[in-house]
Specification:
The complex is a heterodimer of chains A (115) and B (115).
Chain A (H helix, E strand, L loop, with lengths): L2 E5 L2 E5 L4 E8 L5 E7 L5 E7 L5 E3 L5 E5 L4 E6 L8 E8 L9 E2 L3 E6 L1
Parallel strand pairs in A: 2-11
Antiparallel strand pairs in A: 1-3, 3-8, 4-5, 4-9, 6-7, 7-8, 9-10, 9-11
Chain B lengths: L3 E4 L2 E4 L5 E7 L5 E8 L3 E10 L2 E4 L7 E6 L2 E6 L8 E8 L10 E2 L3 E5 L1
Parallel strand pairs in B: 2-11
Antiparallel strand pairs in B: 1-3, 3-8, 4-5, 4-9, 5-6, 7-8, 9-10, 9-11
């Protein structure tokens, strides 16, 4: 069965430092891949998605993610963290050819930004 | 106004009470979903609906029921609430035409506490 693993339930970085949030999926066929962000007291919103086009995907707020088939990974990065990036981030996968109802969410990574 | 609106935003109730969470959307999407969020578990699908006449169970439907009153309205009911149903509940929508590659649009959540 499809699964998604986010390494690290909590990541803390200094303002201006690199942000790296890790996501690995289990599938022999590359799925659709997503990163969602949840700000405090809000619903989730899409940061970016991979749907078998370019392997480097750029999203909102300066985030990007690179799909690496050989590593079954889809890590999220941002070169320079800002205080407003503090939130919970969810990696998610949908098997190729499936409907959105088959989406599987990772357990989430809480990102804290130190002044 | 939000595209996906959930009411109530917060509710405290007692064991055995019937609770209804309501969701309405203005995005014009056919597909609607109810998810439950628990710390460290990500989001899990409770029920989903592809149109007014189509209701499907998700991963954790036991103890819950839903009603799709119209294309824009999808409500979740707990017939007899129990403490382990204390969680944050999200309604979401997606565009049929996007399939599994489509973005989920979330409401702001309904926090339910069962005492």
């Amino acid at each position: 069965a499809q699964s998604v693993t986010q390494l690290g339930s909590h990541v803390s970085v200094s303002e201006g430092a690199l942000v790296l949030l890790r996501c690995n999926y289990s599938s022999s066929v590359p799925p659709y891949l997503f990163w969602y962000v949840q700000y405090p007291n809000q619903g989730l919103q899409l940061l970016l998605k991979y749907t078998s086009a370019a392997t480097l995907v750029k999203g909102i707020n300066g985030f990007e993610a690179e799909f690496k088939k050989s590593e079954t990974s889809f890590h999220l990065t941002k070169p320079s963290a800002h205080m407003s990036d503090a939130a919970e981030y969810f990696c998610a996968v949908t098997p190729l050819g499936s409907s959105a109802s088959k989406i599987i969410f990772g357990s989430g990574t809480r990102l804290s930004i130190r002044p | 106004d939000a595209d996906v609106t959930q009411t109530p935003r917060n509710r405290i109730t007692k064991t055995g009470k019937r609770i209804m969470l309501e969701c309405s959307q203005t995005k014009g999407h056919d597909r609607m979903y109810w998810y439950r969020q628990d710390p460290g578990l990500g989001l899990r699908l409770i029920y989903y609906s592809f149109d007014v006449k189509d209701i499907n169970k998700g991963e954790i439907s036991d103890g819950y029921s839903v009603s799709r009153q119209a294309q824009a309205k999808f409500s979740l009911s707990l017939e007899s609430a129990i403490p382990n149903q204390t969680a944050l509940y999200f309604c979401a929508t997606s565009d049929l035409r996007q399939g599994g590659a489509g973005e989920l649009f979330f409401g702001e959540g309904s926090r339910l506490t069962v005492l």
